[in-house]
């Protein structure tokens, strides 16, 4: 049972809060690289309750406080010029590192700007996402996970907004049993038309649609284990004495998971707090087969999470698109065929911040229980000045690879060997992985 105090500790992320201080020790997604394209690459960003402005000038990214240090005007409406972002009120110019480098309305020779600096954070691009480090001291190194090392043509990034606390959004990805219910489709579709869509294709080494597996085998066995990066989950559905379906998924501490999308693609997804009651999910889709058809993937997702804000067309204001006739005939939820909307409803309908004091967890929630222990322990270590999980130096980051994320059907008596071999075979057949392995050697 979670106490009210523990729930507050795990969910509140403002500056100075225990969890907010922890999450600032990690690189956080702040925008898609696509959002900083065009003739005016300037974007207002709100993350963990902090209002910032992101911009690109001269090939360099800057992320600084949104309010001008002069009299608080909004720099999101500033001008990109002279190597920085210029406030439209009095022309004060800021460099990417937050330094005020010009105060042109002041008298000639004024040195006012020499002592003025806005809070600024470093920004790097990884696989179509711009990550920022909002913490103090040296930023951790990025682990050499597949989503970060795959070439650009083999990855695709997207995002979407959910109107709820980041933790309940993340926890839906640590709860593998819900797929048989929340994402239950009453009819199977042609798997050859499933590109870019989750739970509509076929598992590896099988001809049966994954939607049929989830629908007909709805009491999975769930195994969990701690790892160097957080947690691995195995979800097993015994189809017969001879064959079992397995999904291997992972939690990348502190707030991401890696799951299989289909036989040749994985999804690495972060849940990033906007503030205490809203978050964006950021996903990197990584292909081990053919290069990603980015146009198809993007157009599919823009239908429900349209740019420029990537806020969903279905939400609590229109009952998440609920249709009672569809619920009777086509889907378990009655909320369409996009599983992101299903997950969004499951998380948003708990309220802005889920009240975990009222939960009654079952055996299938063991992954969530372990994750909360990891989170509380990391908060404690960070408060004590110790190094939390996954705050990595470069040598340790280089050792972390993968992680395996598999969806397949194998021999019931040898599932551990099956998923490891399936991961190895998929990597061996991936052109980019072979090249990366040769470079590492």
Structure, described:
The chain has 441 residues and is an alpha+beta fold. It is globular and about 85 Å long. The protein has 2 domains: 27-133, Rieske [2Fe-2S] iron-sulphur domain (Rieske Iron-sulfur Protein), CATH 2.102.10; 144-440, no CATH class. It is built from 12 helices and 21 strands. The relative contact order is 0.15. The longest helix has 18 residues, at 366-383.
- Coarse structural class: alpha+beta
CA gyration radius, whole angstroms: 23 Å
Number of domains: 2
Number of strands: 21
Molecular shape = globular
How would you characterize the largest beta sheet?
8 strands, antiparallel
Number of contiguous helices:
12
Strand content: 25-35%
Mean pLDDT: 95
């Amino acid at each position: 049972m979670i106490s009210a105090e523990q729930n507050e500790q795990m969910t509140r992320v403002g500056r100075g809060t225990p969890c907010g201080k922890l999450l600032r020790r990690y690189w956080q997604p702040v925008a898609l690289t696509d959002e900083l394209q065009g003739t005016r690459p300037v974007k207002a960003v709100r993350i963990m309750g902090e209002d910032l402005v992101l911009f690109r000038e001269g090939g360099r990214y800057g992320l600084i406080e949104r309010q001008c240090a002069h009299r608080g005007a909004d720099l999101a409406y500033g001008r990109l010029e002279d190597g920085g972002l210029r406030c439209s009120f009095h022309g004060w110019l800021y460099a990417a590192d937050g330094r005020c480098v010009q105060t042109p309305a002041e008298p000639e020779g004024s040195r006012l700007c020499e002592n003025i600096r806005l809070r600024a954070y470093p920004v790097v691009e990884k696989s179509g996402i711009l990550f920022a480090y909002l913490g103090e001291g040296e930023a951790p190194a990025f682990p050499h996970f597949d989503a970060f090392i795959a070439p650009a043509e083999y990855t695709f990034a997207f995002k979407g907004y959910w109107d709820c606390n980041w933790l309940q959004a993340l926890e839906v990805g640590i709860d593998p049993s819900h797929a048989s219910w929340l994402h239950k489709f009453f009819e199977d579709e042609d798997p050859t038309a499933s590109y870019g869509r989750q739970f509509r294709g076929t598992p590896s080494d099988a001809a049966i649609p994954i939607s049929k597996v989830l629908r007909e085998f709805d009491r999975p066995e769930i195994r969990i284990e701690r790892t160097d990066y957080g947690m691995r989950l195995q979800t097993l559905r015994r189809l017969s004495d001879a064959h079992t379906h397995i999904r291997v998924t992972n939690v990348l501490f502190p707030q991401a998971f890696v799951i299989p999308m289909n036989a040749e693609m994985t999804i690495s997804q972060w849940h990033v707090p906007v503030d205490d009651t809203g978050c964006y999910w950021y996903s990197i889709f990584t292909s081990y087969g053919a290069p990603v058809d980015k146009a198809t993937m993007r157009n599919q997702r823009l239908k429900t999470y349209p740019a420029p804000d990537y806020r969903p067309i279905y939400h609590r204001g229109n009952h998440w698109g609920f249709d009672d006739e569809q619920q009777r005939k086509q889907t378990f939820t009655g909320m369409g065929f996009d599983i992101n909307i299903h997950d969004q409803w499951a998380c948003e309908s708990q309220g802005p911040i889920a009240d975990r004091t009222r939960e009654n967890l079952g055996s299938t929630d063991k992954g969530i229980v372990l994750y909360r222990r990891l989170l509380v322990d990391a908060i404690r270590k960070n408060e004590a000045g110790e190094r939390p999980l996954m705050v990595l130096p470069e040598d340790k980051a280089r050792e972390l690879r993968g992680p395996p994320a598999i969806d397949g059907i194998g021999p019931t008596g040898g599932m551990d060997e099956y998923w490891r071999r399936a991961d190895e075979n998929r990597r061996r057949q991936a052109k980019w992985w072979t090249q990366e392995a040769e470079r590492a050697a």
